[in-house]
Amino acid sequence: MEVPKTTDTAKQGATITPEVTWAQRSSATDAEKNHIFLSINVPDVDPKKIKLDVQPTFIDFKGWSESKKAEYSVKLEFYAEIDPSASKINHTPRCVEMVLQKKELNEEFWPRLLKDKAKVHFLKTDFDKWVDEDEQDEKDDDDYMSRMGGMGGMGMEGLGVSSATWMKERATTMRN
Protein backbone atom coordinates (compact mmCIF):
# COMPACT_ATOMS: atom_id res chain seq x y z
CA MET A 1 0.00 0.00 0.00
CA GLU A 2 1.41 3.35 -1.04
CA VAL A 3 1.17 6.22 1.42
CA PRO A 4 0.12 9.47 -0.26
CA LYS A 5 2.66 12.24 -0.02
CA THR A 6 1.72 15.21 2.09
CA THR A 7 1.78 18.50 0.32
CA ASP A 8 2.75 21.88 1.61
CA THR A 9 0.46 24.21 -0.33
CA ALA A 10 2.53 27.26 0.59
CA LYS A 11 5.58 25.70 -1.08
CA GLN A 12 3.56 25.11 -4.24
CA GLY A 13 2.73 28.77 -4.79
CA ALA A 14 -0.71 28.84 -3.20
CA THR A 15 -2.46 32.00 -2.09
CA ILE A 16 -2.47 32.48 1.67
CA THR A 17 -4.81 34.75 3.61
CA PRO A 18 -2.59 36.49 6.17
CA GLU A 19 -3.51 37.12 9.77
CA VAL A 20 -4.84 40.66 10.23
CA THR A 21 -4.95 42.37 13.62
CA TRP A 22 -6.72 45.61 14.48
CA ALA A 23 -7.64 48.09 17.18
CA GLN A 24 -9.21 51.54 17.12
CA ARG A 25 -9.56 54.94 18.70
CA SER A 26 -12.44 57.38 18.31
CA SER A 27 -12.93 61.07 18.87
CA ALA A 28 -15.73 63.44 17.99
CA THR A 29 -13.38 66.44 17.98
CA ASP A 30 -9.80 65.34 17.15
CA ALA A 31 -9.09 63.63 13.82
CA GLU A 32 -5.65 62.57 15.11
CA LYS A 33 -7.40 60.41 17.72
CA ASN A 34 -9.93 58.92 15.33
CA HIS A 35 -8.26 55.99 13.61
CA ILE A 36 -7.88 52.26 13.03
CA PHE A 37 -4.64 50.42 13.80
CA LEU A 38 -4.34 47.64 11.22
CA SER A 39 -1.51 45.12 10.83
CA ILE A 40 -1.25 42.59 8.03
CA ASN A 41 1.12 39.91 9.29
CA VAL A 42 3.23 38.86 6.33
CA PRO A 43 6.73 37.72 7.31
CA ASP A 44 9.44 37.77 4.65
CA VAL A 45 7.52 39.86 2.11
CA ASP A 46 9.80 42.29 0.29
CA PRO A 47 8.31 45.81 0.02
CA LYS A 48 9.02 45.62 -3.72
CA LYS A 49 6.70 42.60 -3.94
CA ILE A 50 3.69 44.33 -2.36
CA LYS A 51 0.58 45.63 -4.06
CA LEU A 52 -1.50 47.70 -1.67
CA ASP A 53 -4.65 49.56 -2.67
CA VAL A 54 -6.13 51.72 0.09
CA GLN A 55 -9.54 53.19 -0.76
CA PRO A 56 -12.20 54.89 1.40
CA THR A 57 -14.30 51.71 1.71
CA PHE A 58 -11.74 48.91 1.40
CA ILE A 59 -8.13 47.82 1.42
CA ASP A 60 -6.72 45.26 -1.02
CA PHE A 61 -3.33 43.69 -0.22
CA LYS A 62 -1.17 41.26 -2.16
CA GLY A 63 2.42 40.36 -1.37
CA TRP A 64 4.85 37.67 -2.52
CA SER A 65 6.88 35.69 0.00
CA GLU A 66 10.02 34.30 -1.60
CA SER A 67 10.73 32.04 1.40
CA LYS A 68 7.25 30.46 1.29
CA LYS A 69 6.94 30.69 -2.52
CA ALA A 70 3.42 31.94 -1.95
CA GLU A 71 1.30 35.00 -2.42
CA TYR A 72 -0.44 36.58 0.55
CA SER A 73 -3.76 38.15 -0.37
CA VAL A 74 -6.54 39.81 1.57
CA LYS A 75 -9.29 42.32 0.79
CA LEU A 76 -11.14 44.03 3.62
CA GLU A 77 -14.34 46.04 3.16
CA PHE A 78 -14.60 48.47 6.05
CA TYR A 79 -17.59 49.04 8.30
CA ALA A 80 -17.39 52.77 7.49
CA GLU A 81 -15.19 55.02 5.38
CA ILE A 82 -11.58 55.97 6.03
CA ASP A 83 -9.52 58.84 4.63
CA PRO A 84 -6.68 57.23 2.61
CA SER A 85 -4.81 60.53 2.18
CA ALA A 86 -4.55 61.00 5.97
CA SER A 87 -3.58 57.38 6.63
CA LYS A 88 -0.04 56.10 7.30
CA ILE A 89 1.71 52.88 6.32
CA ASN A 90 4.91 51.32 7.63
CA HIS A 91 6.46 48.09 6.31
CA THR A 92 8.45 46.00 8.79
CA PRO A 93 10.14 42.62 8.23
CA ARG A 94 7.15 40.91 9.87
CA CYS A 95 4.13 42.95 8.82
CA VAL A 96 2.59 45.96 7.14
CA GLU A 97 1.38 48.34 9.85
CA MET A 98 -1.21 50.99 9.09
CA VAL A 99 -2.90 53.80 10.92
CA LEU A 100 -6.06 54.42 8.92
CA GLN A 101 -7.82 57.71 9.60
CA LYS A 102 -11.57 57.31 10.05
CA LYS A 103 -13.47 59.70 7.78
CA GLU A 104 -16.24 60.60 10.23
CA LEU A 105 -15.42 62.11 13.61
CA ASN A 106 -17.40 60.12 16.15
CA GLU A 107 -16.90 59.48 19.85
CA GLU A 108 -18.23 55.92 19.55
CA PHE A 109 -16.15 52.99 18.33
CA TRP A 110 -17.09 51.14 15.17
CA PRO A 111 -18.95 47.99 16.29
CA ARG A 112 -16.63 45.94 14.03
CA LEU A 113 -13.93 46.48 11.41
CA LEU A 114 -15.68 44.89 8.46
CA LYS A 115 -18.87 45.80 6.64
CA ASP A 116 -20.07 42.20 6.82
CA LYS A 117 -21.10 40.93 10.27
CA ALA A 118 -19.77 37.42 9.58
CA LYS A 119 -16.72 36.31 11.58
CA VAL A 120 -13.58 35.62 9.58
CA HIS A 121 -10.85 33.30 10.86
CA PHE A 122 -7.90 35.53 9.94
CA LEU A 123 -9.09 38.75 11.66
CA LYS A 124 -8.13 39.24 15.30
CA THR A 125 -8.22 42.02 17.87
CA ASP A 126 -4.80 43.54 18.58
CA PHE A 127 -4.94 43.57 22.37
CA ASP A 128 -1.56 45.33 22.58
CA LYS A 129 -3.16 48.42 21.04
CA TRP A 130 -6.81 48.00 22.09
CA VAL A 131 -8.34 50.16 24.81
CA ASP A 132 -11.92 50.39 26.00
CA GLU A 133 -13.95 53.34 24.75
CA ASP A 134 -14.16 54.91 28.20
CA GLU A 135 -10.36 54.64 28.69
CA GLN A 136 -9.16 55.87 25.30
CA ASP A 137 -8.47 59.44 26.46
CA GLU A 138 -6.03 58.06 29.04
CA LYS A 139 -4.09 55.99 26.49
CA ASP A 140 -1.05 57.69 24.93
CA ASP A 141 -0.57 56.62 21.32
CA ASP A 142 2.41 58.91 20.74
CA ASP A 143 4.96 56.09 20.94
CA TYR A 144 3.22 54.02 18.27
CA MET A 145 2.48 57.06 16.11
CA SER A 146 6.10 58.23 16.33
CA ARG A 147 7.18 55.02 14.60
CA MET A 148 4.95 56.13 11.74
CA GLY A 149 6.35 59.67 11.92
CA GLY A 150 8.09 61.12 8.92
CA MET A 151 6.19 58.75 6.70
CA GLY A 152 3.50 61.29 5.70
CA GLY A 153 0.25 60.39 3.99
CA MET A 154 0.19 56.70 3.09
CA GLY A 155 3.70 56.34 4.47
CA MET A 156 5.33 56.34 1.05
CA GLU A 157 6.71 59.88 0.92
CA GLY A 158 9.62 58.84 3.11
CA LEU A 159 10.58 56.45 0.34
CA GLY A 160 10.86 59.28 -2.17
CA VAL A 161 7.75 58.35 -4.16
CA SER A 162 4.11 59.33 -3.99
CA SER A 163 1.60 56.74 -2.81
CA ALA A 164 0.06 56.59 -6.30
CA THR A 165 3.48 56.00 -7.89
CA TRP A 166 4.36 53.41 -5.26
CA MET A 167 1.13 51.47 -5.84
CA LYS A 168 1.55 51.63 -9.63
CA GLU A 169 5.15 50.38 -9.43
CA ARG A 170 4.14 47.55 -7.09
CA ALA A 171 1.28 46.52 -9.40
CA THR A 172 3.75 46.30 -12.30
CA THR A 173 6.23 44.32 -10.17
CA MET A 174 3.53 41.88 -9.03
CA ARG A 175 2.53 41.14 -12.63
CA ASN A 176 6.12 40.31 -13.61
UniProtKB/TrEMBL annotation:
<dbReference type="GO" id="GO:0005634">
    <property type="term" value="C:nucleus"/>
</dbReference>
<dbReference type="GO" id="GO:0051879">
    <property type="term" value="F:Hsp90 protein binding"/>
</dbReference>
<dbReference type="GO" id="GO:0051087">
    <property type="term" value="F:protein-folding chaperone binding"/>
</dbReference>
<dbReference type="InterPro" id="IPR045250">
    <property type="entry name" value="p23-like"/>
</dbReference>
<feature type="domain" description="CS">
    <location>
        <begin position="15"/>
        <end position="114"/>
    </location>
</feature>
<dbReference type="Pfam" id="PF04969">
    <property type="entry name" value="CS"/>
</dbReference>
<dbReference type="InterPro" id="IPR007052">
    <property type="entry name" value="CS_dom"/>
</dbReference>
<dbReference type="GO" id="GO:0006457">
    <property type="term" value="P:protein folding"/>
</dbReference>
<protein>
    <submittedName>
        <fullName>HSP20-like chaperone</fullName>
    </submittedName>
</protein>
<dbReference type="InterPro" id="IPR008978">
    <property type="entry name" value="HSP20-like_chaperone"/>
</dbReference>
<dbReference type="GO" id="GO:0005829">
    <property type="term" value="C:cytosol"/>
</dbReference>
<comment type="similarity">
    <text>Belongs to the p23/wos2 family.</text>
</comment>
<dbReference type="GO" id="GO:0051131">
    <property type="term" value="P:chaperone-mediated protein complex assembly"/>
</dbReference>
